[in-house]
Amino acid sequence: MKNEIRSAALLFLTAAIWGFAMSAQREGSRYLSPLTFNACRFTLGAAVMLPLMMREKKKNGEPLTGRETGKGIVLGCVLVLASFLQQMSVGEAGAGKSGFLTALYVVLVPVIGVLFKKKTRITTWLALVLALPALYFLCVPKGESIALKGSDAGLLAGAVFWALHILLTDEFVKKVSPLKLCTVQFAVGAAMNWILALLFETITMGNILHALIPVLYCGVMSTGVGYLCQTIGQKGCRPAFAALILSLESVFCVISGALLLGERMDARGYIGCALMLLAVILAQAGAIFMPAKEETHV
Question: Among 42, 47, 108, 148, which one has the highest count of C-beta atoms within 10 angstroms of its own C-beta?
Fold first, then answer.
C-alpha cells in the first residue's frame, strides 16, 4: 500500500510538471523551431539522467546492456515523433487546448492495445464515442464547417504516438531499469533532434538564450524529472490508475495557460475540455473497478 501511494504521488507530480510544461513549450515556440527546442530539452534531460544512471551502475555493478539500449532506442524514436508533432502545434493551439487534445492518448491506449491482442471493455468504445463531440467543440469554431487546423491535426497525430509511447513504456519498464531506459531514450531523442535541426532549421545562440527559461524547465523538470517520475510511478501503480492520474496533465495545462499566459477559452472550448476529461475517465473506469487479465490501460 505504501508503494502504491508513493507511485500515485509521483504520477500526480508528473501530471503537474507536464501540465505547466505546455505553457513553457508555447513560450519557447516563440523563439525556437520545434526540432531545435526539442534537441535542447532532450539534451538537458539526458544530462540530468546520466549521473543518476552512473550512480545506479556503481551501486549495482550492472552495466548498460544491449537489450536495455535497444529498448531505449525504440522509445527514443517514438518520443521524437510525438514531441515534434506537439511542439510544432502548441504555439498556434495554445497550452490549454493542446493539453486536452493530447489527452486523447489515454482513450487511444486501450484501442491500440486491441491491435496487439489486448483485452478491452465496452467502456473503451463508449469513451471513444464521447471523445468525438469533445473534439468537435475543441476544434471547430461556432458557425464554421468541420475542418481541422494544421495545429489540431498535429496534436491529434501526436496523441497516437504518445499512446504508443505509454504502451511501450509499460511493457519495457517491467524488464529493464527505469533510469537506464530514460537516459537512453533522451540521448537518442537529443541526437536525432540535433541532426534533423541542423539539416532543416536555422539554429542561433541568440534564440536559444531568449528561450532559456522555457528550455530549462522543459529539459530539467519536464523531460528529466517528469519522465523519471512517470517511469518509476508506472512500475508500482496499476496501469489504469496510472493513466487516470496522468490524464490530469490536461487540467494543469489549462491552469498554467490561464495563470502564466493569460489564455482563455470560449464556452465551446470548456465544454470540449469537460467532455474529453469524461472520455478519459470512462476509458479507464472498467479497468479500475473490474480489472481484467491481459488488459493494458496505461
Answer: 42
Cα 118 to Cα 59: distance, rounded to the nearest angstrom: 37
Cα separation of 274 and 272, whole Å? 5
Q: What φ, ψ does residue 135 adopt, rounded to 5°?
A: -65, -35
| pLDDT in 10s for each residue of the chain, 298 residues | 667 788 889 999 999 999 999 999 999 999 999 999 999 999 998 998 888 888 888 888 788 888 889 999 999 999 999 999 999 999 999 999 999 999 998 888 888 877 777 777 888 889 999 999 999 999 988 766 677 789 999 999 999 999 999 888 888 887 788 888 889 999 999 999 999 999 999 999 999 999 999 999 999 998 878 877 887 887 777 766 777 788 888 999 999 999 999 999 889 999 999 999 999 888 877 666 555 544 444 4
Query: Residue 147 and residue 252: Cα distance in Å, rounded?
Result: 27
Distant-in-sequence, close-in-space partners of 123: CB < 8 Å, separation ≥ 6: 282, 283, 285, 286
Place of cell 479500475: 288
CB 131 within 8 A of CB 279: yes
Closest-CA residue to 91 (of 140, 132, 33): 33
3-state secondary structure 128-197: HHHHHHHHHHHHCCCCCCCCCCHHHHHHHHHHHHHHHHHHHHHHHCCCCCHHHHHHHHHHHHHHHHHHHH
Environment class of residue 206 by beta-carbon count within 10 Å: exposed (0-12), middle (13-18) or buried (19+)? exposed
Residue indicated by cell numbers 523551431: 33
For the chain, the distance separating the N- and C-terminal CA atoms, rounded to the nearest angstrom, is 20
Which pTM does this prediction carry?
A: 0.88
